[in-house]
Specification:
This protein is an alpha+beta fold. The chain contains 7 helices and 10 strands. Pfam families: PP2C_2 (PF13672).
Length: 261
């Protein structure tokens, strides 16, 4: 049983080495133990706006419900409200052009981690050198795997691997998946856009997470993705779980991480 746990997080977003616009957005709300990564799609004035609208709407909901208490239903409603807002924005400002965003959200309530997601932004658990994907991509290739058309190995290299089947802001009726699990002392929880997983295999991600310091581990992930060429925007949030008396000690200047411009 966990007692007096401490959570430490590190988040960073980078435009990458190829694209000129960063369509990713992130939210760190440690006061409520909530973290979000959103990956926009649709280009300038579409994807970047959609992901930020999603983040802003969730942030507003958290602020409004912080006193009475956050629940899974509150977080789902925040995402559904953002879905409506993005669709309305597309109709009024983009002449019907589709703007959308994937999402992965982590909320730690007591000793339980809750994940909400839509699209192919992912959530992972890293514990005792073992990396496991918690979320399941809403993608065309995953549907083919489910149908037995592709193996998991074939899906990893499939040319349509970036075709997603679910996103916020695309259709009015959107399903947001949810899964929960107990947290474990010593584990790290990773939220990321597909800009990270598109460059790094699970084995490469696990290798970068060997470091106990959450800032060093998160920075190593970003460096590794950029070193691979970072063809897409790269966004990640890393959350570590430790005992209160074992929480890492950080100086203020430790929190300043170069953006690899």
């Amino acid at each position: 049983m966990l007692t007096d746990i401490a959570l430490k997080s590190f988040g960073q977003s980078h435009v990458g080495a190829v694209r000129k616009i960063n369509e990713d957005s992130l939210l760190e709300y440690p006061e409520q133990n909530i973290w979000v990564v959103a990956d926009g799609m649709g280009g300038h004035e579409a994807g970047d706006v959609a992901s930020q609208m999603l983040i802003d709407t969730i942030n507003t909901y958290i602020n409004e419900h912080a006193y009475h208490g956050i629940t899974i239903n509150v977080l789902k409603q925040a995402i559904l409200t953002a879905n409506e807002k993005i669709i309305a924005y597309s109709h009024s400002q983009l002449a019907g052009k589709t703007a959308g965003s994937t999402i992965v959200l982590l909320w730690i309530d007591g000793y339980t981690a809750h994940w909400l997601w839509a699209g192919d932004s992912r959530g992972y658990r890293f514990y005792h050198q073992d990396l496991k994907q918690v979320t399941r991509d809403h993608s065309h290739v995953n549907e083919l795997v489910d149908q037995g058309v592709l193996s998991a190995e074939e899906a990893e290299k499939h040319p349509m691997g970036n075709v997603i089947t679910r996103a916020i802001g695309v259709v009015e009726d959107i399903d947001v998946d949810h899964i929960s699990h107990p947290i474990v002392e010593g584990e790290m929880l990773l939220l990321c856009s597909d800009g990270l997983t598109g460059e790094l295999s699970d084995a490469s991600i696990a290798e970068q997470l060997q470091q106990q310091n959450v800032i060093n581990a998160g920075s190593s992930l970003m460096h590794a993705a950029l070193g691979k060429g970072a063809k897409d925007n790269v966004t990640l949030i890393l959350v570590s779980v430790s005992k209160q008396n074992q929480i890492e000690s950080f100086k203020d200047d430790d929190l300043t991480v170069p953006l690899f411009s």
